[in-house]
Amino acid sequence: MDKVSGRLTVFFEDPFWIGVFERMWEGKLSVCKVTFGAEPKDYQVAEFIRKNYYRLRFSPAVEAKMKDAGQNPKRVQREVRKQMQGSGIGTKSQQALKLQQEQGKAQRRTADREQREMEKERKFALKQQKKKEKHRGR
């Protein structure tokens, strides 16, 4: 049986509040970063998840180990406290976000390159057409 787990970490990254959704499935981690703006209340976060979870664009999956859930409750409480004091997201999540960012950057670059080529071709065709119109009467 496959285990699926998810986690949302909300933290302040000047000047906005950021939410990082982590999704573990089949031993792979994928991440999505959401900017909330002002500090969200618990009910606002719950409503956001309910309405927008399936529209989130998660990063490509990265290999990660999945921990078993059978832990001591006090240990879990200590880990939660340590995460609350920590600076946001883990390194695997950062890697997944970086991968997503790089893929978006590559897509934008190819689209921009194609746009420049199309513009260049259009200008060249326009210049050729003007040249032909100049010499048509002679």
TrEMBL record:
Instruction: List the InterPro entries.
Output: UCP021328
Compositional bias segments (type: Polar residues): 84-104
Which residues lie in Basic and acidic residues bias regions?
109-124
Name of the featured protein? YjdF family protein
Please tell me the species this chain comes from: Candidatus Egerieimonas intestinavium
Where is the sequence biased in composition, kind Basic residues? 128-138
Q: Where is this region: Disordered?
A: 65-138
